[in-house]
Every structure is written in structure tokens, then in C-alpha cells.
Amino acid sequence: MVYGYKFIKGTEDEKTRRITDLYRSNDFEDGGICIMILTVAHTKGGVGKSTLAWNIANCFINDGQKVKIIDLDFQQTIFFINDIRYASGLDKKEVIQCETAAELISTFETYNNDEILIVDVGGFDNDINRTAISWSDQIIVPISNSLTEVLGFKTFEAILEEIGNPFVNVVLNNIHPLTKDFDVITRAIGESENISLLNSIIRNRKIYKETLGVGKSIFDTKNEVAKAEIKGLCDELRSNW
Question: Of the given ranges (7-16, 45-54, 161-170, 200-209), which has the lowest mean pLDDT?
Fold first, then answer.
């Protein structure tokens, strides 16, 4: 089994080659490889990390997966959303809070091999967030198509290069429903060797904020368009495993 990027031994290049070989192997296709740690990350606040992490987690849960959410955001957004959910009479999700990098590593090392861990990091640069990123099998970076977002991404890109995890995916998030031109983002990401732009696009829809405020995900609603967006993103993430 493979349990996270940091479990692979060797230099950074050796680890990258080893995981790439495992992805392409028959063992992976037959279920012999477990890729479990997904981290939604960005040092810029307000890009929709918590909303995205919450809905990704609920999508996998809705598909029958065992999921734990690790809330590293100092605002504790997912922790409080989950409390609101429980107080409303809905099922409570498993949300873990870690206060130190050592505690986070311990959580990574002891999770079950049939679980997916979804990590929501805070909008700042510190040891615990870097630890989450370095251990992840997939890093998901949400950005919109504004100039300030692109500049913020370039700052975060430098941090990602320092950490050295090569499995970084950018997802267009909170995008106006009519926007089709993403050349600015495409050019910015195209300069990055280890960063890929996902095909999935999450549009700016009221349903995302409305559900979050009452402890729900879009999978607790009848909004099929929003469900399809998140489901499409999760399917694309699976295809990259």
C-alpha cells in the first residue's frame, strides 16, 4: 500500500518516479495502491478552500467512501459547519483538528487504508500547513480568474516549489457562470512544471454559500447543476490517482 507522498523513500526525484510508476501499475488498477490524502491549499484567504473541501468530502461520502476531514484553518470553518449540521438534526461528519505538525503526522500515520483524508489548510504559511502539503497525494489549489488571484497563486507557487511535492492541481473556483476565457490563468500555470490545471470548473453559485451557512453540502440539496460540478471534479481527481 502507498499512504501518502512522504511514505515513499528516496530523493524527491526518486519518489516522484516511484509514485508515477505505481500510478501506472496493474497493482494500482487492481486496488493494490491506496491514494488517500487530498489537501485543499492556498496561502491566500477567501479563495473558497473550506467550501470546496467540505463539498469534495461530502461527494466522496455520498459515493460510499469513508472520509475524514482535517480542519487546519484557524477560523475552524468546517468544524463549525459540522456543529451547525449536527444541531440541525443532520448526520455529523468526522472532523479532526490538529494543533501541531507532529499531531498531524500522527494522524496521517494512523489512518485506515480504506479512508480518504480531506485536509483544509488555513490561508497562511506555517509548519503545519507545509506538513499537510508535503504529505499529500493530491494538492488542490482553488483560484478564480482575476489578476489578484493569479498574483496570489504565483506567491503560493514559490512555497510549493520549496516543499517539493509534485502533485499539484489547480481548479478554477468561484467562476462567473458566463466566463469562458481563462488565458491569464493558463499562461501562469503553464510556466509551472509540476502544476496542472484541471478541466473541472466550479462556478459562482448562491447554493454553495447558502448550504454552508446551514451545515449542509450541495449533496443535501436538489441542485443537480452544482452536484454535477463537484462530482465532475471528484471524478477527475480519481482519474489522476
Answer: 7-16
Computed over every residue of the chain, the mean pLDDT equals 86
Contacts 24+ apart (CB under 8 A), 213-216: 213/84, 214/84, 214/85, 214/88, 215/81, 215/82, 215/83, 215/84, 215/85, 215/86, 215/87, 215/88, 215/90, 216/85, 216/90
Q: What is the dihedral of CA 174, 97, 39, 225, to 10 degrees?
A: -40
C-alpha 214/C-alpha 81 separation (Å) is 7
- Residue 66 CA to residue 112 CA, distance in Å, equals 9
Per-residue model confidence (pLDDT) at position 146: 82
* Architecture of domain 37-104+114-240 in this structure: 3-Layer(aba) Sandwich (3.40)
Whether the CA torsion 170, 221, 50, 150 is positive or negative: it is positive
Amino acid at 201: I
* The model's pTM: 0.86
CB atoms within 10 A of CB 65: 14
Whether the pLDDT of residue 129 is over 70: the answer is: yes
Query: What mean pLDDT do residues 144-167 have?
Result: 87
**Measuring CA to CA, which residue among 202, 191, 94 is closest to residue 142?**
202
Question: CA 27: distance to chain centroid?
Answer: 24
What average pLDDT does this structure show over 58-81?
95
